[in-house]
Every structure is written in C-alpha cells, then in structure tokens.
Amino acid sequence: MARVDYYNDPNAPKANSIAVAVSAFIQDDEGRILMIRRTDNDLYSIPGGQLELGETLSEAAVREVREETGIECEVTGVIGLYSNPNHVIAYDDGEVRQEFSICFRAKLLGGNLRISNESREVLWVSRDALAQLKTHPSIRLRIGHAVQLRNEPFFS
C-alpha cells in the first residue's frame, strides 16, 4: 500500500486513525547504521512497523527488523517516543494516521541482509553517508537522538 508522509504541512489531510508503531536503531561493529529503502514511499528509513495484537513492543521491533532486513536483534533501550500530531501518514486506502512511534535501540545478533516486500534495499550506512540518502525528517530526528546517546529518552 502506498503512503505519503505529511510533516508540518498546513495542507495535510486530517488524521482519522492512530496506531502504535515501532522502529529500531541498530549499528554494526563498524558503527554503520542499518537502513532500508521502503517500498511504500521510496524513502530510506530505519526498520520498523506496526505493533500486532498479542506481542510486546520489543517483540514487534525485533519482528519488524527480521521481516524487513533478515537481521536478528535484541532490544536494549528506548531512544524516544514520537507523537507529533503535525506528522500524518496518508495511505491509498483512505486511512490518514497520526504518528505514534516508539524508537528502540537494538543490538545486532546476526543474520544476513535481504530485502522483503516492505524493503527494496537493505544496507549498512556510515554516519557520513546518511546525508546522501533521501530520508524523512522524522527518521532523521530519531537517528539524531540515537547518535547523541542521550541519558533519557526523547518524548513529544
């Protein structure tokens, strides 16, 4: 399903739903960041997706990373809780979702990079190369908070 992210856009459609989403910030031994190129909007992102019934938040993050990248991970902390009502995501089925996302820090355990129906590209990216990737501002915000190694999680 295609999507369009609206961020601080006065012409954005009004939200008609909200759902819990999770994402995971993972670095390899060289400090590179695990990134995907999404199939629904063609933007680069850290892996993540929606919480499903019957799972915990950390289980959702681990599952989404595995599904989208082939990487196994373990959640080790919370980077932030993001709930900006000025960030809405419009899907082609008419749903317009207000952002509500929890970003976790996770430890790489293993696995092999692979694409999925949600990721057309999966790669490890150096911090210097991040600026060359077309990434949504909300994802850049999460990555910025992650690399700051904050003592307390960000929340909005």
Secondary structure layout:
Elements: E1 3-7, E2 17-18, E3 21-27, E4 33-38, E5 44-45, E6 48-50, H1 57-69, E7 71-82, E8 87-91, E9 96-98, E10 101-111, E11 119-125, H2 137-147, E12 154-155
Parallel strand pairs: 2-9, 3-10, 7-12
Antiparallel strand pairs: 1-8, 3-6, 4-5, 4-11, 7-10, 8-9
Distance between the termini: 28 Å
- Identify the CATH homologous superfamily: Nucleoside Triphosphate Pyrophosphohydrolase
pLDDT average, as an integer? 96
CATH architecture: Alpha-Beta Complex
Low-pLDDT runs of 5+ residues are none
Radius of gyration: 15 Å
Outline, from the CA principal axes? Answer: globular
Strand segment count: 12
The percent range for helix content is 10-25%
Number of helices: 2
CATH topology: Nucleoside Triphosphate Pyrophosphohydrolase
What does the oligomeric state look like here?
Answer: single chain
- How would you characterize the largest beta sheet? 5 strands, mixed
Text of the CATH class = Alpha Beta
Strand order of the largest sheet: 6-3-10-7-12
Q: What letter string, H or E per element, gives the SSE order? A: EEEEEEHEEEEEHE
